[in-house]
Specification:
By secondary structure, the protein is of the alpha+beta class. The chain has helices spanning 17-28, 38-41, 57-70, 73-76, 176-181, 203-208, 232-245, 346-351, and strands at 53-55, 80-83, 99-105, 114-116, 120-126, 130-134, 137-140, 146-149, 155-159, 168-174, 187-189, 229-230, 254-257, 272-278, 287-289, 293-299, 301-306, 309-314, 318-321, 327-331, 338-344, 357-359.
Length: 376
């Protein structure tokens, strides 16, 4: 929908030679007339510079593995192939103010400890030896597991698998572009190079992973989830159980958010993450939201349409949805379900009062609660 700026309430000043001379005098004083840019900086609706993108895992995987022989882990800090949106490379963004990349670690490899203002999350794509230590707590994660590294927590990573088990590849997700846009970045290298492990492995999972139960007494005063790792098996089981009780969302199928077990809220203040299940043959309806999203095909294969672009995805593929972009999904299999992992910046949008969403209008221009599909 195109809205005209030639209406009362919008900037509609006609240019003249006198005005141009006036603008030049303002420019000399590092000033300017707001009305010349008002409509650009206050558009009728979001106009993201990011575009829908699709990164195929089968194309990226060989190049990610090639990095093992080209760059030492200690020299790279983190051996990662970053995913860039074409017009957002200058801020290292995958979409909006979110960053993502594929990190690879060889068996027996470990990275040094550090911390930064940016919050981070991990989604394991392949490999069976991955671990991370977050503020002294060692977490072991495997394929399709999800883990968080809250901002300003000491963390390091590694792969303790045997040589025969091969490398680990996991997806990183960070809010680095957001932190940098706010001029708030900090970074530190651990004074001891590596952390000292405290307690048992996966202690947060043992303590908070029961879901419906929480430890009696005690307190948690931090703004992120005390549960740092979310294994795939109970996640998938929760989706299957929910599918028995509900038809789910018309826009997302059976979708569940990884949550803080103490509050029920998002795992971190700036990013939230979801896993959704599309039943065999299921196609969702189109909707859009204020906020950017990055999807990873965790299981199965399917099709998504994002602002008119069709992405046919299979396991390991990553695609992004810019803010306020229409999107919908379909599972192409008639016999098996498909699952999509995703993370977004919705907590930021909600905290600032910016979040909104709407269904795709019907042929008469109405926006019924059930929306409609764009699939062809």
């Amino acid at each position: 929908m195109t809205l005209s700026d030639d209406v009362l309430g919008r900037a509609r000043v006609r240019e003249t030679a006198e005005l141009q001379a006036y603008y030049e005098r303002l420019e000399e004083l590092d000033a300017g007339a707001l009305w010349t840019i008002a409509n650009k900086i206050e558009p009728w609706f979001p106009q993201p510079r990011s575009v829908p993108m699709h990164w195929r895992y089968r194309d990226l995987r060989p190049l990610v593995l090639e990095a093992l022989g080209l760059v030492k882990a200690d020299d790279a800090g983190r051996r990662v192939v970053a995913l860039y949106n074409p017009d957002r490379r200058d801020i290292a963004a995958t979409v909006g103010l979110l960053y993502s990349g594929l990190q690879v670690m060889a068996p027996g490899e470990s990275m040094t400890a550090h911390r930064h203002q940016a919050a981070a999350l991990r989604f394991v794509l392949e490999g069976t030896g991955a671990w991370t230590i977050v503020d002294g707590q060692k977490l072991k994660v495997g394929p399709r597991d999800f883990a968080i590294t809250p901002n300003w927590t000491w963390h390091e990573h590694g792969n303790d698998g045997e040589e025969s088990s091969g490398p680990v590849i996991w997806q990183d997700g960070l809010d680095i572009p957001l932190v940098n846009a706010l001029d708030a970045p900090f970074y530190e290298v651990h004074p001891s190079t590596y952390q000292k492990q405290e307690g048992v492995v996966n202690s947060s999972l043992h303590t908070y992973g029961a879901g419906q139960l929480r430890p009696a007494g005690g307190s948690w005063g931090k703004n992120h989830s005390p549960l740092l790792a979310y294994p795939w098996e109970p996640t998938y089981e929760a989706l299957l159980s929910a599918a028995k009780a509900s038809d789910g969302s018309p826009y997302d199928g059976i979708i569940m958010e990884y949550s803080n077990p103490l509050t029920g809220g998002s795992v971190m203040p700036t990013m939230s993450a979801h896993m959704q299940l599309l039943r065999a043959g299921e196609a969702t309806l189109a909707h859009r939201q204020v906020g950017s999203k990055i999807y990873t095909a965790a299981k199965g294969s399917g099709t998504s349409v994002v602002n008119g672009k069709r992405f046919d995805w299979s396991e390991g593929d990553i695609f992004c949805v810019p803010s306020w972009a229409w999107h919908e999904h379909a599972n192409v299999s008639r016999s098996d379900d498909a699952c999509l992992f995703s993370f977004n910046d919705f907590p930021v949008m909600r905290s600032l009062g910016f979040f909104r969403e709407e269904a795709y209008p019907d042929n008469d221009g109405h926006q019924p609660a059930e929306g409609r599909s764009l699939m062809v």
